[in-house]
């Protein structure tokens, strides 16, 4: 079975998503939010949920991270996720 470019990127995306669960150190909140937003865009597409209350700081930050990628295709989000995940993995290492 030959792999298409899309299938290869999907495999790289899944590998990167698994690898970031095994970092030696916890990334910064901004790095985690960047990964979160791209992951949601790559797996679910544009954010169509209502914006959480300003009092829910964590939920609002996650919503904003996802919403910041609105309009990006799932494939483009996967590619960006892999790039950022690889940078974070290089920075923190895997356990």
From TrEMBL:
What Gene Ontology molecular function terms does this protein carry? fatty-acyl-CoA binding
**Residue ranges constituting the ACB domain according to the UniProt record:** 9-94
**Per the UniProt entry, what is one GO biological process?**
fatty acid metabolic process
Highest taxon of source: Eukaryota
Report keywords, A-Z: Lipid-binding
Q: Which family does it belong to?
A: Belongs to the ACBP family.
- Can you name this protein? ACB domain-containing protein
Question: Top-down, what is the taxonomic lineage of the species of origin?
Answer: Eukaryota, Metazoa, Spiralia, Lophotrochozoa, Platyhelminthes
């Amino acid at each position: 079975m030959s792999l298409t470019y899309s299938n290869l990127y999907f495999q790289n995306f899944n590998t990167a998503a698994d690898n970031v669960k095994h970092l030696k150190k916890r990334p910064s909140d901004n790095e985690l939010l960047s990964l979160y937003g791209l992951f949601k865009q790559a797996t679910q597409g544009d954010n169509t949920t209502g914006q959480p209350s300003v009092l829910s700081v964590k939920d609002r930050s996650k919503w904003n991270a996802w919403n910041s990628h609105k309009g990006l295709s799932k494939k483009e989000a996967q590619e960006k996720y892999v790039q950022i995940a690889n940078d974070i993995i290089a920075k923190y290492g895997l356990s």
